Amino acid sequence: MYQYDPSDPGPQFAYEDSYCDSTLHIDIVFPPVPLANVTLTVSGTGTGQVTASPSTVCVGCGSIYVTKGMNVNIAAIPDASSVFDGWVGTIPAGNCATSGEDCINGANATIFADGSRTVTAIFDLLPPPPPGGFGCWVWDATLGNQGGYKWTCTSPSPPAGGGVQPQVGCWHWDPNSGPFGAWLRDICGGGCGLNLTTGLPMVYCPPGGIFGGKIIEPGDPNDKGGTQGTGSQQYVAASTPLLYAISYGNEATASANAQTVVITDPLNTSVDDLTTFSFGPISVAGQTLFPPPGTTYSTTIDMRPGTNLLVGVNARLDSNAGIATWRFTSIDPATGLPTTNPTAGFLPPGANGSVFFTVMPKQNVTSGTQIQNQATIVFDANPSMNTPTWLNTFDVTAPASQVQALPSTEMSSSFVVQWQGTDIGSGVQDYTVYASVDGAAFAVWLTNTAATSGTWTGLAGHAYSFYSLARDLVGNVEAAKTSAEATTIVSTLSNVTSSVKVTSTGFLYSRATRTYNGTITVTNVSGSAISGPLQIGFGGLPGGVTLTNATTANDGIPFVTLPAGLAPGQSTAFTVQFGDPSNLSITYSPIVYSGAF
Q: Which of 139, 202, 385, 526 is deepest in the core (most CB within 10 A)?
C-alpha cells in the first residue's frame, strides 16, 4: 500500500492492487494547506477597530488564520473621538502592485502573510483644534487622508495662512479644503518620525520627512532635526519629550559605497534625564528597525540576494559619559568579518538613512534654560562631519492674567469685560474666562480664547464677577483662582436724558467756600411722567474741576440725587458747587437717569 509522503507538496497517487482488493482503483491525496496566523491589535490613547479582508475581524475577538503566502487587506477605522496614527508591525515596501510584500496607504494596508504576524493600529484621541477662533474650527474626518479642522464661520474669516497649526502632530494648511480652508492632518512617521502623543513610530511621511511637526528638507544629506518649539527660541514645556532625528547620507557624487558609518551624539547630562532615554526607529539599507526599550540595541540585516552583504547595526547609550552612538558596519557573509572589498558597502552614492531618539528633561529644569544638540557623522576613515545644532528653550513658568476692573455699576445690561496677561517665556496663547452671577459658583464663560475682551449680557439688578486663567504657547496654565478680579452690578436705572432739558443760571465764585456756585434746572420736556428719584450726572468735566456737593459717583462721573420725579412740563432746581483751582471755564455734558443706583 502506498503511503502519503508529507515532504511532497503536490497531489500524490496511491495505487491499490489485487493483494488489497479485487478491484484496481486510484486515490488522490491532497496535503494539508499551510496556514498563517495574523493577529490584529489596537493601541494608543484613542479607540477604534481594524477590519481585514478576506475575513472581517473584531479586534479583541482573536486572531485570523489565512492561507500562508496570501495578501491580507486591512483597514483602521477610528471612533468619532479618535484619529488613526499609524501601523506597527508592518514592513513598508511601497509597491502596492506587487504581491508578496507589505504595502501601506494611510489607514489602509496590505500585509503579506508569510508566517505568523502581529500588526497593531495606533489610535489617539482627537487632537485639540488650532488656537483662536473659538467655535469656528470643526473636525471633519473626511478631509484629506486623515481628516482635519475646517473653518466654518463666515465672519470672521480664518487667520491669514491658517494661523497657528493645531498643537499635536503634523499638519499642513490647505486653503481649498472646506468652505474657507482647513488644517489637514498628516501621519508623519515611518523612518522619519514618531507620534508625539504615544512616542511610537508612524508610517506615513510627506516628501522631505517630518519629525516633531517640523518638515526636514536637508540640502546636505547629513542633517539634524528635533522637537518643534515656539518662536525663534523654540520654547518647549518640561513635560515635552525631546525628540531628535539625525539623517545621514552618501553624497550622490561620491565615488564609492560607504562601508562603515558611525553617528555620535553627546547629550547634555546637566539637563537630559538619561534614565528616560529611548532609541527610536533606525532607517538603514532600505529597512526600518524599531528597537525595543533599552539603552543598547544590536542586530544584523541581510541584504542578500540583491547585495551579497550583511549590515551590522549597533546602538548604545553610554550613560556615564552621556553619549549615544550608532554604528553601521558592512560585513562579508563568507567570513562574518567587516568586508575588505573597497567597492563593497551598504550605503551607495545617493542613498541615505536616519536614526531617532527621545529623552526627557530633568524635573528641576528652570525657565529660560537652553539645550543644544549636535551630532557627528563619520564615513569610513574620513574626517568627522558635524550636523547643524538643534536648539530648544524650556518654559516651565505659568503665565499670569487678570480681568481689568469694572465700574461698580454698569448702566447697560450689555457691557465689555477686558483682561490681559503676561508670560516670561513662550508668550500667552489664550485665556479661559470664568464668570459668577450674584455670588454663585464660578463657571466657564470663554474657553481658550485668544481675544482680550468680550461682551457680557446680563440682567438689570444682578451682580456679575469675573476672573481669567491664561495658557502659554507651550501649554503651561495659570494656577486656579478662587476669588473675583472684577465685579459689577447692572443698574436698574433708565436713561431719560433725551426727555429732559438741563439749564444753568451761571456760576458765581464764593470766597468763603472757594467754590463756584450756581443753580441747575431740570425740566421734563416729554409727554410722560418721569418717576423719581432722579440722578443728574455731570460728565466731561475739565481736568481738576470737581463737583463738591455730589451725592455719588459712577464710572468716574459725579451725580446729584433728587428724590422726586417730574410730571410732563414740570421743572425742579438744585444748587451745585464746583471746585476749580485753576479758575478755568466749567463745562460738562449732563446725563439724567430715573431710578436708584
A: 202
